[in-house]
Design a protein that fits this description.
Subunit structure (chain A): Homodimers and heterodimers.
CATH architecture of one domain in chain A: Roll
Distance between the termini of chain A: 80 Å
Keywords (chain A): Auxin signaling pathway, Nucleus, Repressor, Transcription, Transcription regulation
CATH superfamily of one domain in chain A: Phosphatidylinositol 3-kinase Catalytic Subunit, Chain A, domain 1
Strand order of the largest sheet of chain A: 2-1-5-3-4
Family (chain A): Belongs to the Aux/IAA family.
Number of strands of chain A: 5
InterPro entries (chain A): AUX/IAA_dom, AUX_IAA, PB1-like
Radius of gyration of chain B: 25 Å
Distance between the termini of chain B: 24 Å
Structural class of chain B: alpha/beta
Largest sheet of chain A: 5 strands, mixed
Number of helices of chain B: 20
Oligomer: heterodimer
Radius of gyration of chain A: 25 Å
Helix content of chain B: 25-40%
Largest interface: A-B, 40 and 54 residues
Strand content of chain A: 5-15%
Largest sheet of chain B: 21 strands, mixed
CATH topology of one domain in chain A: Ubiquitin-like (UB roll)
Number of helices of chain A: 8
Shape of chain B: globular
Main location (chain A): nucleus
CATH class of one domain in chain A: Alpha Beta
Structural class of chain A: alpha+beta
């Protein structure tokens, strides 16, 4: 092996690489290890499969991925949103939002008032409290659970005035249900 | 020594084939008005304008191709604002701007609309960062606008009044494409716009335009050449449908059809008449058209040259394409089932049928469940004219299911037969052998995309050594390391860019390239949340994502924290 300058460096680097044939086969299996082997059974387990996909595979551009109507995927998730003091309710499609901050921006626009964003970010300081009715009919404080869980269980939203929640004690980030017991 | 990299000059002189001629001419002639810049970071706006002060039409591309597949973080770069700002300040007479994979803010659109009196054409492809407010600025201020073409952009929709911003005095529109917009548009404004723009030849609507509006529009614009239908949902017995049918019959100039974002397939008979003359058909977003309805439609399209379709067409459907569309040159078959729930789609059979029936085929993008060497060899024999060949098996390391062999020989046949091949994407089980073939035979190859392929550095070296015209090489999840990276670093200055992610190159290897080649930007994208990496990055650590490209202007100043330019 040549010893001048670059040649020597290459030699050194080669020594540093994990060696040999064993690596090659491992690399080839990497995809199936990442994505999960073999046949995917239940069609109903749609969401679970999505999580086991390799990033960027298949190589379909993200616009197309988002706009591929899969029949099952095309459902819109409209929920009513009420805000205390506002004369009428609005509706939003939860599916079009990627997360809580996205939702906050949308709600801000709908009700043209700037407390909402803060409410969703920091429950303690804002004038408003965002709550939602879940599948069980319980009223929950928005923001506790991951976005996907929230959007799947949310049936309607209410932007409640903190003053209406007097006596409930929202200083802790626990759900309203828990504190109601005490109060 | 003052020279311009190829990407600037590529498209300026079509008739000069020798690069040295083109470079030489550019030194004396400053009157170029159409400039193409394949990498916005290869050159600065200032230098461009200094060199070509009479630029009227500019094409700019930003993010690397793999950004399409979410491999590049959101705020990596590619901002158009500085370009527009500089061009505005220099008093340039900009008329056309085409952007791909760039970040376009509303401010940029606003500035664009106010700075160039003669601005005529805006084409945005796979861009992001703007809202309909930006479009409103374009509509309001560009008095001579001829073309507003939005292709597959992520646009935040703000309640659709942007269309109403086209003043009554605007009659110059020739092309309007807003199919990618999510929200409502003002339908009355749309109808009036179409009515007063008698030169309108291309119109692509979004899903929010209902059928009765479409019908009214077609009555006003029977000379359309390119039509994108948004929503096509109606009752076949309704009066609207009958009116639509007669309106369509008068649209004898339509040659290109797309959309059908929402569709009631039983009503497709109304468009059969248009199908007879179509040269281009894009049903890749028309998930609602499948089965027998789709086949029936295709059977009317005897003159098709370009077809984009979903894989639910199936192998049998491709057989119908093969027997009907004898003039076919470009075929793209996209996956309809992205999450692999298991619906069989297309296989090698469909492709073989197409190759047998459509000898003029020169451009292919094909997502399939499996591929065989025998099929590829047959395809290579039937269609020696491929200039673009992109194959994607949904399982990227799947071997030939018949022989259980890698697909080396199949792709080898393609590169050997298709002497004009300029672009190639490979998948399937692939060893270093396929790269040996590519290096040996793919003499015209300019762009190569590799994923989960190869065994060793030799593979990548075959390509770097053999493909003299290589411009863009992008590799992911393949076992190529520092030896391949460093053997011929001079090669990278002859290329536009190299992308390597999840490979074996280390930080030290990348640093070496950067040190040896000052005219390259070597960027490491490090998204890991470990802050400690900053403190003392281990040179032996593998680099997750590396993007290097030649440039005249050194490291860019707008790189975010997670991008290190070595």
């Amino acid at each position: 092996m040549a010893k001048e300058g670059l040649g020597l460096e290459i030699t050194e680097l080669r020594l540093g690489l994990p060696g040999g044939g064993a690596e090659k086969n491992e690399k080839k299996r990497v995809f199936s290890n990442i994505a999960g082997d073999g046949n995917i059974s239940t069609a109903g387990d749609h969401k679970k499969e999505r999580k086991s996909q390799v990033v960027g595979w298949p190589p379909v551009c993200s616009y197309r991925k988002k706009n591929s109507v899969n029949g099952l995927e095309s459902t819109k998730m409209y929920v009513k949103v009420s805000m205390d003091g506002a004369p009428f309710l609005r509706k939003i499609d939860l599916n079009t939002h990627k997360g809580y901050s996205d939702l906050a921006v949308a709600l801000e626009k709908l009700f043209d008032c700037f407390g909402i964003g803060e409410a969703l970010k920091d429950a303690d300081s804002s004038e408003y409290v965002p709550i939602y009715e879940d599948k069980d009919g319980d009223w929950m404080l928005a923001g506790d659970v991951p976005w996907e869980m929230f959007s799947e269980s949310c049936k309607r939203l209410r932007i409640m005035k903190r003053s209406d929640a007097k006596g409930i004690g929202l200083h802790a980030k626990s759900s309203i249900k828990g504190t109601l017991k005490d109060g | 020594m003052n020279y311009f990299p190829e990407e600037v000059l590529e498209h300026v002189f079509d008739f000069l084939t020798s690069d040295r001629d083109r470079n030489a001419v550019s030194l004396v002639c400053q009157s170029w008005y159409r400039v193409f810049i394949g990498n916005c970071y290869a050159i600065s706006a200032e230098r461009l304008i200094a060199r070509f002060p009479r630029v009227r039409s500019l094409t700019l591309k930003g993010k690397p191709h793999f950004a399409d597949f979410n491999l590049v973080p959101h705020d990596w770069g590619g901002f158009v604002y500085p370009w527009i700002e500089t061009m505005a300040k220099s008093g340039l007479n900009l008329e056309e701007l085409r952007l791909k994979r760039m970040v376009v803010s509303d401010d940029s659109l606003e500035l664009l609309s106010r700075s160039f009196v003669n601005f005529k054409s805006l084409v945005l492809v796979s861009c992001e960062g703007f809202t309909t407010d930006g479009l409103a600025a374009i509509a309001s201020n560009c008095r001579f606008l001829r073309e507003l073409d939005l292709q597959e952009n992520e646009v935040e929709d703000r309640r659709g009044q942007w269309l109403s911003c086209f003043p009554d005095s605007c009659t110059s529109l020739v092309s309007l494409n807003f199919a990618c917009l999510k929200g409502e548009v003002n339908l009355v404004a749309l109808e009036r716009l179409v009515t007063r723009c008698c030169n309108l030849r291309s119109l692509r609507l979004n899903h929010a335009v209902p059928l009765d509006t479409l019908q009214k529009i077609l009555v006003q614009a029977p000379h359309l050449v390119d039509l994108g239908i948004g929503s096509y949902v109606h009752d076949p017995d309704s009066e609207t449908y009958h009116k639509l049918k007669s309106a369509i019959q008068k649209c004898t100039s339509v040659r290109s059809l797309s959309g059908f974002l929402e569709v009631a397939p039983r009503c497709l008979a109304a468009i059969y008449q248009i199908c007879l003359n179509l040269t281009s058909l894009n049903l890749s977003y028309a998930a609602g058209i499948h089965g027998t309805e789709l086949i029936k439609l295709i059977r009317h399209c005897g003159r098709l040259q370009r077809l984009w379709i979903l894989d639910c067409i199936g192998d049998k459907g491709l057989g119908v394409v093969a027997s009907t569309c004898k003039e076919l040159q470009e075929l793209r078959v996209f996956p309809s089932d992205l999450y692999g729930v298991g619906h069989a789609a297309v296989t090698e059979e469909g492709l073989v049928a197409i190759s047998a029936g459509c000898p003029k085929l020169n451009s292919l993008l094909y997502f399939c469940h499996q591929m065989t060497n025998a099929a590829l060899i047959t395809v290579a024999k039937n269609c020696p004219n491929f200039t673009r060949f992109r194959l994607c098996t949904l399982n990227p390391t799947k071997p030939d299911p018949v022989t259980m062999q890698p697909l080396d020989d199949g792709f080898g046949a393609i590169v050997q037969s298709c002497k004009g091949l300029r672009r190639l994407s490979l998948t399937g089980l692939l060893t270093d052998q396929v790269f040996l073939y590519i290096g040996m035979y793919a003499e015209q190859l300019e762009m190569l995309s590799v994923a989960f392929a190869g065994d060793s550095d030799e593979g990548m070296l075959y390509v770097l050594n053999g493909c003299k015209k290589l411009k863009k090489l992008e590799i992911r999840d393949s076992p190529f390391g520092n030896v391949a990276l460093l053997t011929d670093v001079g090669k990278y200055e002859t290329m536009r860019s190299l992308w390597m992610s999840s490979c074996e190159v280390t930080l030290e290897g990348c640093k070496t390239v950067a040190k040896l080649m000052p005219r390259l930007n070597v960027e490491i994208i490090n998204e890991s949340e470990q802050v400690e990496v900053e403190a003392s990055p281990d040179d032996r650590q593998k680099v997750e994502k590396m993007y290097l490209y030649r440039t005249l202007v050194g490291p860019r100043r707008d790189a975010p924290d997670f991008v290190w330019t070595l």
